[in-house]
Amino acid sequence: MKIKIVSNNTELLKFIKFQWDVYRNDPYWVPQLVSDTKLLFDEKKNFFWEHAEKKLFYVEDDNGKILARVAGVIDYNFIKFHNEQTGFFAFFECLNISQAKDVSSVLLSSVENWLKEKGMKKMLGPTAPSTNDEMGLLYEGYDSDPVLMMPYNPPYYHDLLLSYGFKKAKDLFAYKITKDDLPIGRIKKIVDSVIEKHPDLVVRPVNLKKFEQEIKYAVEIYNDAWEKNWGFVPWTEKEFVSQALRLKPLIKSELVLFAFIKNEPVGMIITVPNYNEVLKKLNGKLGPIEILKFLYYKNKIKSLRIMIMGVKKSYRNRGVEVVMYYNTILNGLKLGYKWGELSWILEDNTMMNRAAETLGAKLYKKYRVYEKYIE
User: Fold this and answer.
1) Cβ proximity of 177 and 361 under 8 Å
2) What letters, b where the CB count within 10 A reaches 16 and e where it falls short, cover 338-370?
């Protein structure tokens, strides 16, 4: 075995494409676009790296075949916000071979040693690369494809992390809501009651013609609503704008809603079509043929992901959440979608878990985030 550190574009591409070896015969894996994954690592185009650093490790055998990979990541905004010396391991993958525990142990110790050299006291993950991106390992729910921007992995990864000394930090929940399970009448009664109490509450779609102003509303709501959430790190405006511009061609305005009370932005819900239904047919490529496939299949998407929903702290417990959910559900049905995923929700976020259940959603996937104190 040789431990190598990615130092050029050729090695980076090898690092990225290793996933195709891991998931070659997995019917549920959805290959992400190689170009999109490269963008995540690009220090000039991904503004996350303005306040973070990384080191990419992989293990290969004597024939140059990769056996496992991982990245070490330090987000200095996370350290500043939480006042704790925590680093991350990210993009973890390992072949299911007899020496997998030895390979992963050598690999993870390389990350741990690097983080230790940088003064970190704890290792958390996996992320891809930050807590604002994909997070955790799939723990339950291996019988269906992941939705857009949610992780997927083989079950044996958990044993590899436990054998190295990782322990559970937090579980993240994903709920599935189907057209047939919606208690529309009951939800409408709740919504009518909320509107009666708060007649100045207005829920409207995003205005794509005034996108810059809408982004300012989104940043304001996001950094207030999620401030106390476990693992939260405020996005910089550059990061938020960059992510919004990436999502803009994919969103439908009827599914991105803002809530206002007396003209103050107080909440938002961002729902996106589940483009993993399309990506699965592209195999990580985006050449001329794949572009034609994309244009054809994007109009056949039948599922959604409710990926962001939040209300400012001072406006919670007024029913704003259920009004936004209700409008999203009605609009999704009008657009012809059959089911959606609400993800992710912290296991101990009682209010949000109850809200999901009120909507008729069922817990169907769990993800686990691990931690290890650095000795």
Assistant:
1) yes
2) ebbbbbbbbbebeebbebbeebbbebbbbbbbb
To 5 degrees, how large is the angle CA 45–CA 250–CA 298?
Answer: 125
Q: How many helices (H) and strands (E) does the chain have?
A: 12, 14
Query: Could you give the CA distance from residue 166 to residue 329 in angstroms, rounded to a whole number?
Result: 39
Domains belonging to the chain, first-starting first, are 2-171 (3.40.630.30), 177-367 (3.40.630.30)
- Structure token pair of residue 116: 């230790």
* Sign of the CA dihedral running 77, 81, 85, 88: negative
Q: What are phi and psi of 265, to 5 degrees?
A: -70, 120
CA-angle at 131, arms to 14 and 17, nearest 5°: 10
Distance CA 252, CA 206 (A): 9
As beta bridge partners, residue 268 has 258, 310
Q: How many CB atoms lie within 10 A of CB 216?
A: 15
| Token pair 């894996």 in the structure block, residue | 29
Q: Which residues have C-beta within 8 Å of that of residue 101, sequence separation ≥ 6?
A: 159, 160, 163
Per-residue pLDDT of the chain (375 residues; tens, 9 = 90+): 899 999 999 999 999 999 999 999 999 999 999 999 999 999 999 999 999 999 999 999 999 999 999 999 999 999 999 999 999 999 999 999 999 999 999 999 999 999 999 999 999 999 999 998 999 999 999 999 999 999 999 999 999 999 999 999 999 999 999 988 899 999 999 999 999 999 999 999 999 999 889 998 998 998 898 877 888 888 888 888 888 888 888 889 999 999 999 999 999 999 999 999 999 999 999 999 999 999 999 999 999 999 999 999 999 889 999 999 999 999 999 999 999 999 999 999 998 899 899 899 999 999 999 999 998
Q: How far apart are CA 247 and CA 29, in angstroms?
A: 22
End-to-end CA distance of the chain: 25
Task: Give the phi and the psi of residue 280 in degrees, each rounded to 5.
Answer: -60, -25
Dihedral in degrees, nearest 10, Cα atoms 142, 93, 146, 296: -130
